[in-house]
Amino acid sequence: MTKTTITITQPDDWHLHLRDGEALNSVAPFTARQFARAIIMPNLNPPVTTVVRAVEYLDQILAAVDGSDFEPLMTLYLTDNTPASEVIAARKSCFIKGLKLYPAGATTNSDAGVTDIRNCDAALEEMQKSGLPLLIHGETTDPQVDVFDREKVFIDKTLQPLTQRFPELKIVFEHITTREAADFVLQSGDNVAATITPQHLLFNRNALFQNGLQPHNYCLPVLKRDIHQHALLEVIRSGNNKFFLGTDSAPHAKNKKEGACGCAGIFSAHAAIEIYATIFEQQDALDKLEAFASFNGPDFYGLPRNNKTITLNKEDWTIPDEYPLGDETLVPFLAGQTVCWKLSETI
C-alpha cells in the first residue's frame, strides 16, 4: 500500500552553512522550520576560529530564528595554529560540538585552512582525549590531482594515516561522494561516520552539463560519476547507522552562481527533508528515513534524540524558481521541479 503520510522523529541537519548578515536572516528560518538542530559550519570570512567568535555567531543565528526552538550546534574552524587550549575551551563550552578541517583552498572561504594535518597534532590529541569530533572536508588540494579523484587521494594520503595516528579520534567524513569514501567509513571503527547530501544521492556529474552548463548543480566536492552515486544510494538502502543526514546547504546569490566565479554550493534548506523523503521513496527505503534523518546523527554525537515529530504528506508541489537572499535572490536546489512530499506546518 502506498503511504500518504509519514510521521518521524524531528530530524537534525548535521552539516549546514548559514552565512552571516542579511543572508543569514534570509536562509536560517528554512532550517528552523523542519530541523530541531543543525551543525553550523564555521567558514565565514573571517572564519570562526575561537570560542569567543563562536558565541558571537551563535547570538546572530538565534536572533535570525527568534520565535523557534531551533538549536544551533556550533563548530570551530581548525587552522595550522589552533592551540590545544582552544579545544579545551570548546569542550567546556558545551555548545561547540566539533572542529572543522578544511584543507587550505579546498572550498568556499577555506583559504585559512590547514596546510599540513601534522601541524594540528596538539589540537587533534586534545580532541581525541575529550571526544570532540573532527569534521572533515575530505579532498586533497594538490593541483596535479584530477578534481574527480580528490576525495580518493585524500583518503589514501591523509585520512588513512590520520586514523592510524589517532585511532580513537571521532571523525565525521562530511558530504561523502565516492564508493571509496563509503567503503572507508564502513571498514572503520565506530568512531568514524559520514554525512550524505541530497544532491550526491539524486545526481551524478551528468547533471552539471545537461542542456549546457548548470551552475546551480555545482558544489564541492563536485558531483561524481554514476557508480559513486549508486554506492551512496546502496548505503542509504542498507540502513547502516554510520551514515546520517547532512545537507551541506550553502547559499550563494544568483548572480554569483551564474557569473564568472560560478561559486560552489547548492542551497537545499528550503525543502531538505521533503527532498530526502522523495529520494528514499524512490529507493524503496522510506522505512530507513527516520534513522538516517533523526537517530544516527545524535547517537554518534552523543546527544539525545529529539522528542517532537514531523509529518510529511504525499503531495506534489513545485519548488519556486528563486528565494530572497538579503536584497538579492538565490536559486534553490531543484528550482521549478516537482517534489512529491510536503512538510506539514504543524510540529
Summed up:
With 347 residues, the protein is α/β, with parallel strands linked by helices.
Describe the structure.
This protein is an alpha/beta fold and 347 residues long. The protein has a single domain, classed as Metal-dependent hydrolases (TIM Barrel), CATH 3.20.20. It is built from eleven helices and 13 strands. It has helices spanning 21-34, 51-64, 84-93, 121-130, 150-165, 179-187, 198-202, 226-238, 254-258, 272-282, 289-301; strands at 5-9, 13-16, 37-40, 71-77, 96-101, 134-136, 171-173, 192-196, 243-245, 309-318, 323-325, 328-330, 338-343. The strands form three sheets. It has an eight-stranded parallel β-sheet. Strands 1-10-13 form a three-stranded antiparallel β-sheet. Strand 3, helix 2 and strand 4 form a beta-alpha-beta unit. The radius of gyration is 19 Å and the shape is globular. The mean pLDDT is 96.
Tell me the strand percentage band: 15-25%
Let me know the largest β-sheet: 8 strands, parallel
Helix content: 25-40%
For the biggest β-sheet, the strand order reads 2-3-4-5-6-7-8-9
Q: Give the count of helical stretches.
A: 11
Write a concise keyword list for the protein shown above.
single chain; 347 residues; alpha/beta; TIM Barrel; 8-stranded parallel beta sheet; 3-stranded antiparallel beta sheet; 13 strands; globular
SSE diagram, text form:
Layout: E1 5-9, E2 13-16, H1 21-34, E3 37-40, H2 51-64, E4 71-77, H3 84-93, E5 96-101, H4 121-130, E6 134-136, H5 150-165, E7 171-173, H6 179-187, E8 192-196, H7 198-202, H8 226-238, E9 243-245, H9 254-258, H10 272-282, H11 289-301, E10 309-318, E11 323-325, E12 328-330, E13 338-343
Parallel strand pairs: 2-3, 3-4, 4-5, 5-6, 6-7, 7-8, 8-9
Antiparallel strand pairs: 1-10, 10-13, 11-12
